[in-house]
Amino acid sequence: MMKQIIGIHAHDSNISYMEALFNEDDNVKKHLIIKPQMDLEDQRKKLMALIKKELKSDVVGFMITCTVYASLIEESDIDGVPIWKIEDPIIEAIIQDDHQKFLFFSNPDTVPLTMAKVKAGYQKKGKESDYQVRLIPDSFPLIMSGQQAAYEEAIKEAIAPYLQEKGSVYLMQLSMSLLDGTDNVKTVYGAARESCNVKGETFARSLKIT
Fold this sequence. Notes:
Layout lengths: L3 E6 L5 H7 L6 E6 L6 H15 L4 E6 L2 H6 L4 E2 L2 E5 L2 H9 L4 E5 L4 H16 L5 E5 L4 H5 L3 H12 L8 E4 L13 E3 H10 L5 H4 L4
Parallel strand pairs: 1-2, 1-3, 3-5, 6-7, 6-8, 8-9
Antiparallel strand pairs: 4-5
């Protein structure tokens, strides 16, 4: 029986990144687009209900690509089926990086949620803050309305002055991975890809999918 991996996204622009990560395995990928809501508790309840509804014998895991959704679903598994958050590798990379860092966001709603995870990781390792947080104003509505080129240009303009600084630029949302491959820039997609390349494994095998 074919195994199924279910992606949970806030926007269809994230689908291609998940497909690229799992391009070397034979698992069936199913993508669910869940519209963001203002009430986060209501959003969490609907996400949990959806995950439980999708639990079937052939489902081997859920991949959450939306930063907000990844913060709302704290569980690492539900009924023994793993819940993966695509942002986890970049957060770990930030914690391991001892150089100055500039953390960029385009969606203001993601900042407190993701930074809570970053700060928790720093506290666990006993590290002092060595990063600066930057929000690119009025940029997120561009990608949500399908204006990908304008969104990419807004990110490029925002980070350009920081690329000459000593340190690294981190783009903290998967949608910002349009700039993956840019020198001195770390992306959510790039960090997820590198997390398994270090082990010499496919992304699926790095998640213990056999």
